[in-house]
Amino acid sequence: MTASTSITIATRESRLALWQAEHVQARLGRELGITATLLGMTTRGDQILDRTLSKVGGKGLFVKELETALAEGRAQLAVHSLKDVPMELPEGFTLAAVLEREDPRDAFVSNDYASLADLPEGAVVGSSSLRRVTQLLSLRPDLRVEPLRGNLDTRLRKLDEGGYHAIVLAAAGLKRLDLAHRVRAVFEVEQMLPCAGQGALGLEIRTDDGALAEALARLAHMPTQLACEAERAVSRALGGSCSLPLAAHARWQGATLCLDAALGHAELHTSPLLRAPAAADVTDVASARALGQQAAAQLREQGAGAYLPG
Ligand SMILES: NCc1[nH]cc(CCC(=O)O)c1CC(=O)O
Questions:
Q1: Which UniProt keywords apply (predicted)?
Q2: Pocket test for ligand 1, best of 16, 155, 195 (most atoms within 8 A of CB)
Q3: How far apart are CA 300 and CA 302, in angstroms?
Q4: Based on C-alpha coordinates, what's the Rg of the chain?
Q5: To test ligand 1's pocket by mutation, which of 52, 81, 136, 168 has the most ligand atoms within 8 angstroms of CB?
Q6: 269: burial class by Cβ within 10 Å (0-12, 13-18, 19+)?
Q7: Taking 70 as the threshold, does the pLDDT of residue 59 lie above it?
């Protein structure tokens, strides 16, 4: 790619998606000399607000329309929150780079309470994420967890309208939108293990676009990319479905990647969580994925089979 190259970035139109696309647009210009324009699109995932996404087709709903734009040549690059990207991309598409991760943790957001521990008995907490629901109930079985969908602004508005005592959101999204002041407490990862890829951005392109792949590789942050490879491999090894209450988070200690995975029961949200800690020296994608597969195997040994949807 030359300095005069210009491309189109396909993006969803939520404030967060646009922030992320503009962030990548700025980096393309600054670091690679590539001019990019944005193509905003509405996806099915943005339109379905009344049902839990896992029941209507899951994460893929946020990326399909963007992939169609890539396939038809209306755009060359799609910017995604990595956690919304399915574990297996359709034939013809590839993740060219994963960018350095923002804070991967979940945040406790409330107008009246400083932390989860402060919530009164039986308080109502908003979340539609099975991963968050199972972990919340394992920390505080007395809570009532109620569905909460929509983009970040919508979810905050529903909190402010009084529908919930508190809600749980990704810290990364709130920080990116200058909403960090809404965070009352950040969950330590041991308490509320994040989902695979949380806080990271994934850059998706057509597999046949070799020149763009080569250019984007320079934006990749390898420690994040390998950590996310390990996290995503856990999910892939368990079937890759987003209707699983599955958490996977990896951290570096020197050259060692420390991966934690937690699985809740797909239907009985009060069943105890299964946990698999695993660690290995990781140097490349293959060793990162092997670590994720090892954690998934540990979950299976603990009885994950009975936790997976039938
Ligand atoms: N599922 C929606 C979604 N996708 C990415 C983020 C936040 C940013 C990120 O985790 O990268 C969010 C909001 C949330 O989970 O609270």
A1: Transferase
A2: 16
A3: 5
A4: 19
A5: 81
A6: middle
A7: no
On whether both 4 and 87 belong to a single domain, the answer is yes
Q: 123: which 2 tokens? A: 């308080």
Measured between alpha carbons, how far is residue 260 from residues 239, 278, 286, 292, 296 in Å?
A: 18, 6, 18, 9, 10
* Reported pTM: 0.94
Percent of the chain at pLDDT above 90? 86
- Number of domains forming the structure of the chain: 3
3-state SS assignment for residue 95? strand
In a domain, 22, yes or no: yes
Residue 240 pLDDT: 76
Q: What is the ipTM of this complex?
A: 0.94
Q: Which two tokens stand for residue 255?
A: 């050259």
How far is it, in rounded angstroms, from Cα 134 to Cα 274? 11
Domain that holds residue 115: 106-186
| Ligand 1 atom showing the smallest separation from residue 102 Cα | 11
